[in-house]
Amino acid sequence: MPRQCGQSSGPIIRRSTGLSSYAVSLVSERIGQLFVDGCRLEYTEYGGARGGDDRWVVLLHGQLMTRRMHQPLARALAEAGNHVVALDLLGHGRSDRPDDPLVYSMTAFGEQVLALLDHLGADEAVVGGTSLGANVSLEVAAAAPDRVRALVLEMPVLDNALDACLVAFSPLMFAARYLPLTVSAVRRVTHAVPRGLVPFWAGIVLDTLGQRPGPMAATMHGLLFGRIAPGARIRESLEMPALVVGHPRDPIHPAADAAMLAEEMPNATFVEARSIVEWALRPDRLTEIAAAFLDEVWSGDAPSQARSVRST
């Protein structure tokens, strides 16, 4: 990746943010940063109440979103004994946001995750994410299968989603590039709303809407005109356990893509969500499934063949 961010690869700064009371037991949270080709990336590290130093889990956000979207899940998985790290990929959240579309690609994002594992000293991790984060997780698994213990993939974007993605995201890219005042105006409005006064997921929506036109256009250009995910033959070769979550009635993330991916991967479990927003608004069922899957993965009892869990 070209050096575009104007950052030096100086010392890593890590600071404690205290303790969270999200779960029954307190879960420590620490903010950290690393530099990849001069660009600064920020992450939050969640420590489990039962330790979990070797049970690394990396969570990756969706397109234009931030790592904060995974805060509830990260806290729950950390409380279950995992060492969870949520990363802001380049161009997102509190990480650097260069204007050059050449620095954005699925493969570049995958390299950033591997750099994060190196920075943390983690030989292997469970890697997972939502939408963009699911596709980046596949890239990590394809590039370094020995570093990926398992995958947790929510709403992967594959063949069946391409048309809907072009329809949904092309106008946003056009607006950011040719009508930047519209994006800046939305940013000013969203930044005026105190996050502490709105529900958690309303705050996530506001964060997503608070884009800068240059980086937004560059990010979407780099992704729309690059490789979306590893090809089918590569996906079929990924033998690590995988939990694949599909949403019904989601045009941008059709459940057919999730089901297809689960069929392609030899050791995948397909889970059908009850709705698009189940994991956001009623997370208990899917979080329990994910936590149980991680227990199986780290104990060595993960499923050795594909299976399906349907919503009820």
How many strand segments? 10
CATH class: Alpha Beta
Biggest sheet, open or closed, and with what strands and sense? Answer: 10 strands, mixed
Work out the strand percent. Answer: 15-25%
- Helices and strands, in N-to-C order? EEEEHEHEHEHHHHHEHEHHE
List keywords for this structure.
312 residues; alpha/beta; Rossmann fold; ten-stranded mixed β-sheet; 20% strand; globular
Could you explain the architecture of this structure?
With 312 residues, the protein is an alpha/beta fold. The protein has one domain (15-309): 3-Layer(aba) Sandwich (Rossmann fold). It is 39% helix and 20% strand. The chain has helices at 71-79, 106-120, 132-143, 162-178, 180-191, 200-209, 213-224, 232-236, 255-264, 278-281, 284-299; strands spanning 15-20, 27-36, 39-47, 56-60, 83-87, 125-130, 148-154, 242-246, 268-272, 307-309. The protein is globular and about 55 Å long. The chain starts with 14 loop residues before the first strand and ends with a strand. The model is unreliable at 7-24 (pLDDT under 50).
